[in-house]
Amino acid sequence: MAELAIETHALVKRFKKTVAVDGIDLAIPRGGVHGFLGPNGAGKTTTIRMLATLTKPDSGTARVLGRDIMTEANEVRRRVSLTGQFASVDEDLTGAENLRLIGRLFGYTGARATRRADELLSAFGLSDARDKQVKKYSGGMRRRIDIAASIVVTPELLFLDEPTTGLDPRSRNEVWDIIRAMVSSGTTVLLTTQYLDEADQLADRISVIDTGRVIAEGTSSELKARVGNGALHVRVMHPADRPRASAVLARVLHVEIRNEVDPAAVSATVADPAIVTAALTALADENIELAQFSLGQPSLDEVFLALTGHTSESQTDEEAAA
Amino acid sequence: MTRLDKLDERPDVVPASAESLAAAMRAALADVERPNPPGPLSTSLTFGWRALLKIKHVPEQLFDVTVFPVMFTLLFTFLFGGAIAGSVGGYLQYVLPGLLVQGVIMITMYTGSTLRTDIDRGVFDRFRSLPIWRPSALVGMLLGDAVRYTISAAVTISLGLALGYRPEGGVAGVLMAVLLILVFAFSFSWLWTFFALVLRTPGAVMGVSMLVITPLTFASNIFIEPSTLPTWLQAFVEVNPVSHLVTAVRDFMGGMDASGELSITLLWCAGLVAVFGPLTMIRYRTAG
Predict the structure, then answer these.
(1) CA angle B144-B150-B154, nearest 5°?
(2) Which domains does chain A have, with CATH numbers?
(3) Which residues contact A188 (CB under 8 A, 6 or more apart)?
(4) Which of A45, A46, A86, A136 should one mutate to test binding to chain B, selecting the residue with the greatest count of B CBs within 10 A?
(5) In chain B, what are the domain boundaries?
(6) Is some CB atom of chain A closer than 8 A to the CB atom of B162?
(7) What percent of chain B has a predicted confidence (pLDDT) above 90?
(8) Global ipTM
(9) Prediction pTM value
């Protein structure tokens, strides 16, 4: 394998008493998208901040594109770029001014920086907003200018910290298209997200992070396979029937039946999809009316539940400190 | 390129937006030119340009530099003139150089809260992730502030002239005085950049700034002759760097030899930068 994009050994970061990152080992190859999946406060952002040389680790080592983040920080900065909750653009300036500012800080002459800014604004569909202050941009435009600012000088590795948090579905799809386009031109992307479908859609490989540790790693399919072959979702017509349906399924499938948030729905993870036919028959025998009955690959949500014992929705307030 | 070629063969087909985006993105990313890294001066000046752009887009921030000097000059001249010097005209001749200094020092406190706001918005995290001389973002910001200080000084001097102040030192003396004030303000502001990186909110930064600026400006020779003060206060006034700055400014504007006080003031400037520059940068490196 060629040189790794990111390689860390036992990376640790503490904030006062909380351990934000608790010994993370990574070996991420170049090319494609690597996803960090985890709930708020899991340590994703802190890990990225260390890799982008914004925060120093308390212990452990890390090499980014073959350069040590501690001793060759400036070499790392020359090759990586980041966009996210934290690394932002100046709201008071226009889109074009922000891009020119970054271009000049990288050493472009004034004219060259202006040309590059216009090129990027047009590539990101922001030409009409070039002379508008960024604070007047919509959420989706704002995210696009943030990403554009990160590639004024083409980075070898781009960190994207929760690039679609707070975006509407259309803007989210735009950002996804941008990420795919960047990957197709050879940029390596490290993406953090708390959205399971985002990791599923974009990431070639995923590290599931919880309480400062990597608790699982693999492709989306590999992670799903770890939890069983199929996810059964059953939704009864009348919520009152749910306890009965749950009992029937437990009897036939011999697995744990989980109640969903939806008061009419239950789900289960089944090892042998063939047995599901029997479950359907048993429900019909009990005269339980069904609204929905489906068998598919488990969602990453279910993977997360299986791996951590809690769902990805459980929030902690440590992210504020991290 | 194959996908693009296909599109060319069927010009009637509107390319899917993802396709055209991918093409534009590839074109934009294909440019892998890496310009030579610019030096510290160049990046500092670029950040100074950013500060000027911010003044252009948010001209409200010039409100304080124009209104404060007018208010202070009128208030203090007419309030204390009769009591301290027996006449407003006579007092103006004494107090105006001091007001010039006070006006600028009061405005420096916005430096800290502005920086804190920038940090909270995440702009500085991007700057910190760039391969540039790290202090340049702060140095550039302070260079941009010099524009605000110059406006404040110009307003004070113009109003003073209108009220009857006459600088014996002439244009050259006044320019030297303003230049010295700018140098001092630049050096003094490192105190605020440090506080902006230590304290968590713009309000807290502002509060501390007030706590420092009030004794420094009032317990100085801006408004009164220190000989009228009790000994313990006189001792403070005499070591207060603002007093040295004011005396130097007075000497320049009054056409007298300012070299003695000038050296002391410049020593203070060097000392402030030498102490609070590195302290600021240590915090800046590890902030967040």
Answers:
(1) 155
(2) 6-224 (3.40.50.300), 228-297 (3.30.70.100)
(3) A5, A28, A30, A31, A32, A34, A156, A157, A158
(4) A86
(5) 40-286
(6) no
(7) 60
(8) 0.84
(9) 0.82
